[in-house]
Amino acid sequence: MADMTRFDNLDAWLSWQMQLHPKAIALGLERVAAVWERLGPASLPFPLVTVGGTNGKGSCVAMAEAICRAAGYRTGVYSSPHLLRYNERVRIDGEDVSDALLCESFERIDRARGETALTYFEFGTLAALDLFVRSAPDVVILEVGLGGRLDAVNLWDADVSVVTSIGLDHTAWLGDSPDEIAFEKAGIFRPDRPAVIGQRDAPARLRAEALRRGSLPVQLGREIDWTIGDGGGWIWSAPPGERLALPEPAMRGPFQYDNASAAIAALRALHERLPISVNAIRAGLQRARLPGRFQVFPGTLTYILDVAHNGEAAQALAANLRAFACRGRLRAVLAVLGDKSPVSIVEPLLPFVSDWYLTQSRDPRAMPVEMLSERLAAVLPKPAAATSSDLDAALGAAEAASEPGDALLVVGSFTSVGAVLRHFEGSRAEREGG
Known about the structure:
- This protein has 15 helices and 17 strands.
- By secondary structure, it is of the alpha/beta class.
- The chain folds into 2 domains: 10-287, Mur-like, catalytic domain (UDP-N-acetylmuramoyl-L-alanine:D-glutamate ligase, 3-Layer(aba) Sandwich); 295-433, Alpha-Beta Complex (Protein-Tyrosine Phosphatase, Chain A), CATH 3.90.190.
- The chain has an 8-stranded mixed beta sheet, sandwiched between helices.
- Strand 14, helix 12 and strand 15 form a beta-alpha-beta unit.
- The protein is globular and about 60 Å long.
- Pfam families: Mur_ligase_C (PF02875), Mur_ligase_M (PF08245).
């Protein structure tokens, strides 16, 4: 092994990583700590922001990244999961890292791990930090994968930690009550460092845990807030009287003001090391984009792609649909993973969707369409829903039933939205090529 590379391409590395550990999800920091001790520095050479939460963390990360880049800083961002390519998970200065850089990092990790069996997520997390240390960005932003306390990104002490929101998701690992989940999410907070809470009505335990850990809480509705401006735009405010007049975020939805407020608070907490002007904040909010979050493709038939995969995210999607002008009928293609609650996703969307097409993606964790149909039988009695075990077939059936002016919503998981985005972009490329 000393002079040999285990694999020579990214797909082979990723396939092997998925089989290396006996469990797809194995929370805990012992394995990544043991490998990082042999691989990387004890302290990181850049400011670090860690972002967790049930919903909104991806949006918060995207806004923070866009603001930093608008200020002229070189960024490193780690997020998950991806939609089209694994490379999306690691960005340096706004660009996905190359296959070659990922493979080189995977090789370094493989050599350093010895006999330690890492999960797929742990391998990716170590690779991201390895690449960031080597590329020396001005600031790094890490998105928590699952929970916080025992998630691999929590190995490194963040200068600022953000929890965007608390909701019921991943209950098998995090607990089945908001207080239990709040405890796990609060695990990313650090003593004497800001703990940004981007939710007004967050469970009380989240703030209590921040205080217990000696962190400095910065919570929406308390230490920070926002209001809609009289002449358009909005106002971000913080004591002692700081007020920023800002444009609407490019990402849709009233909840994005909460996510933007959290991102701004996190970056303001770093102002001595990372000064950012109001103009950079304005520019970043208008440039930030996040594929798969109410992503609209207008046309004769409008496509709406949204990765909403729990009740809170579905409620946010419903708020966007309420403000969305659809001239015709809205049909929905739904596929979810096996550990999700499809009823909690469907119920907020019922007032907007005329017809449902239930299906499953090719993800091995996908909920079989028969089970999905059973779970939704009381909510979507026949003939309100059609079923198909093939995602492409369900999409085709929904398209065939649609007329000009109608809209088609694809919702339920990253895997289903990613598959349809790939299908849609492939079809568009064929049309443009033809």
